[in-house]
Amino acid sequence: MREILSRVAVTGDHYANEIRLAPTEVHSEERTIDCHVSPVAIDDARLLVEVTDVTRRMQISRENALLIQHGAGRQMIRQLAHEIKNPLGGIRGAAQLLERQLEGAELREYTDVVISETDRLAALVDTLLGPGGPPNKQPVNVHELLEYVVRIIEAEDDRRLTIHRDYDPGLPLIDLDRDQMVQAFLNLMRNAAAALDGQGTITLRSRAVTNFTIGNVRHRVIASLEIEDDGPGIPTDMQDSVFYPLVTSRPDGTGLGLPAAQELISRHGGLIEFDSRPGRTVFMMRIPLKQVNNVG
Questions:
Q1: Of 160, 143, 159, which is closest to residue 226 (Cα–Cα)?
Q2: Regarding beta strands 162-166 and 138-140, do their DSSP bridges make them parallel or antiparallel, or are they unpaired?
Q3: The model's pTM
Q4: What ranges do the domains of the chain cover?
Q5: CATH number given to 138-288
Q6: CA angle centred on 80, ends 76 and 82, rounded to 5°
Q7: What number is the average pLDDT over the span 246-254?
């Protein structure tokens, strides 16, 4: 600021720019401000400094962009799902016919795998095609769901990533579809684990946030659930399109995990946002919080 003030005082030129403020003990998150410096001549004053916090305004603009992206991505997913679903029935039927021709139980194990994987893909396609009716919401403890997903991730990868918890113990039970939320959490956790490639730390964080706007709806209180990793970050040229289907930076990735998670969270009136830079990527699930009698 000293350099900016000195330059305006010397040159008489106006200054206007956005400035990013690093987190502090008072504000735990990075903020963005509009800073305007103008030369004036009022009594002893020579400079007028105007500072406006535009963090939330920019977040709302970004949220609206994510909602537009999600709408386009949802249409693409449904078209893709239809193309996938058509041949699945044929694959399953062929595997069943082949199974009848095989005599050995060991050989039939292979057709069992084909049939079970076809059924799994068909279930995934049905989920992507959605909405297929409203979510089956029941009061759930989101921390229990997160811990359930952690156990799945640890079972899938024996390299044992470091998991930190930063939970808000006062967060109440929330009306959610358990299966849909587990799938959304699992997609995000798998992405974080893949980004770390077995070495690093994943932080799970939960908070209650008041007066939060999702789209055009202002909520009195929401649950903010965050999954953070200290990996290399999302490539800059991909950050504007990560919620589109088939967009992935991994050779073995499908590009369906994030758009599917966004779809599942949107069915609960929520939204997934993210912030990524080298050493810190965090996906934030914003879910309207409906309190029930029991607290968890």
A1: 143
A2: unpaired
A3: 0.60
A4: 2-53, 57-129, 138-288
A5: 3.30.565.10
A6: 120
A7: 57
